[in-house]
Amino acid sequence: MENSEHWHGHETGPGDVRYHVERPFEHGHFRGAIGHDHAYRVRNWDPGLHRFWLNGGFFGVAAWDLAYVNDWSWSDDEIVLYDDPDHPGWYLAYNTRLGNYVHVEYGGE
Questions:
Q1: Residue 50: how many CB atoms within 10 A of its CB?
Q2: What is the DSSP code (8-state) at residue 49?
Q3: Average per-residue pLDDT for the chain
């Protein structure tokens, strides 16, 4: 599947109810640096809870974006985090190897 530079979930815009969070950032904000100059190596994947760890915390992948992480390497891929400008409470996780973005929610340390 070719995902090159695709920002999943933004075809429908900021009003997409799938990405509405009742209490945005309920577990706080990720304390690490975010943005294109800050890549993190993925640490572990919990398939039952759909979450992975980066340095400083874990992130849950949005249910609607799970199909787009099937080919992520859960021990080697590097991820860059961005604030999601359209969906409060979400971050965008960009996989530098595959070039795709998925919605992730910070779950704490």
A1: 16
A2: T
A3: 86
- Judge contact between 91 and 59, C-beta under 8 A: yes
Can you tell me the distance from the alpha carbon of 24 to that of 94, in angstroms, rounded to the nearest whole number? 20
Give per-residue pLDDT as tens, 71-81. Answer: 999 989 999 99
Question: Rg for the chain (alpha carbons), in Å?
Answer: 13
Contacts of 108 (CB under 8 A, 6+ apart): 27, 28, 57, 58
Is 63 strand, coil or helix?
helix
Query: DSSP label at 87?
Result: S
Residues near 29 by beta carbon (within 8 Å), at least 6 away in sequence: 106
Rounded to whole angstroms, how far apart are CA atoms 67 and 46?
A: 15
Tens-place pLDDT, residues 59-71: 999 998 999 999 9
Tally the residues of the chain.
Answer: 109
